[in-house]
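Appendix B, Record 12. Input sequence as logged:
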Amino acid sequence: MVADMATPDLDEFVAAARAWLDDNAERRPESSDAHTPDETFSVAVFHALATDDERALLERLKRWTQRKAERGYHAIGWPPEHGGLGLPGAYARAFSHLEREYVTPASHEIHSVTTGLIAPTVRIFGDDEQRSRFVDRFLAARDLCCQLFSEPGAGSDLATLACRAERDGEEWVVNGQKVWSSGAQFSEWGELIARTDPTAPKHRGLTAFVVPMDAPGVEVRPIRQMSGGSSFNEVFLTDVRIPDSLRLGAVGEGWKVALTTLGFERDHSDGSGGRVGGSWRQLLATARAVGVTEHPVIRQQLARVYSHHRVEGFVSRRAADQRRAGAEPGPEGSLGKLLWTEGMTLVSDVVADVLGAALVADTGAPGTYAWGEHVLGAPGYRIAGGSDEVQRNIIGERVLGLPAEPRVDKDVPWNEIPR
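Logged structural output:
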């Protein structure tokens, strides 16, 4: 754990961080650019790795995070009691930019879920014992944690979920099914939202838990994606016994816990490299590689992508500043998430014009046909973490103060809602 210290000068911090990176990672060759189309060029939205290869990637990423944790570089804005440095956002951004100059493991969604979503959620809702047990381990990726939220009958309307948790003394017995649980096959823990009071209205009868994924009765079934990988999973819970000490927050406050986690999921402001799909710089590098940057229409389209990229960055930075000031995630996360998914769609549209037939016919040229992984994967994030339509409702109701969308089941007990 990093001891408390006075705030260093930013230049001194950068110099010390560069020296540490020189000792612990390999610099990228000066001629190397991760955004330049070559044999290693990747714009994939979802992993398409074999199971053993994906597990090996995660192990490399965990080791790198744990090495950074020895100096607090994994949590620069977090307080020292959780192993962080307690420094302003400018320091975290400086380290993130510096880290890109070095060869480091590729990102993975379950790592981002653990460190960026579950760790801060436990910090907010966990009791002292839970915070002591989980926060540091999740933040340093010593254990990985998945979300057990969505169900076959509860996607965008998550509050209709049917997974039940029934009290049995000092334990809860859980039965139900979850779906689209990214990385569940590699996780030690899961953040579960379950229904504990079916007689209460749907939003008020939920409770959150931290579930050991190796508990008897937990079965994970990977789902094969059209990209070839199995990032998503079905998770079946059959008579799974969870001690009440693993309940996260008060009984009946599961919806509040879920909204907090989803708020972190919609906030892409941390600059941690967890973003997926093709970036602005990769799109520009592709356009240069195929020689179309002088075409007036293409130049106009590239300018649109760049403008969107910059606006998204400003919104994300504002959200990051609010987070570092101690505020819980709010509706600004919905705006950031909406900008992100719209940006992914815009990149898909523009790269299709940049590449033409090379997008769908593999000519062997690096960084061309590979863009198909972005185009096929990008639509998935329009429903992940709440659909675009849900984000617009949140912005309209909570930011603009518009009348709420009619909800005929708002105050109706969950067990009386027709299904």
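The chain has three domains: 33-139, 145-252, 260-399.
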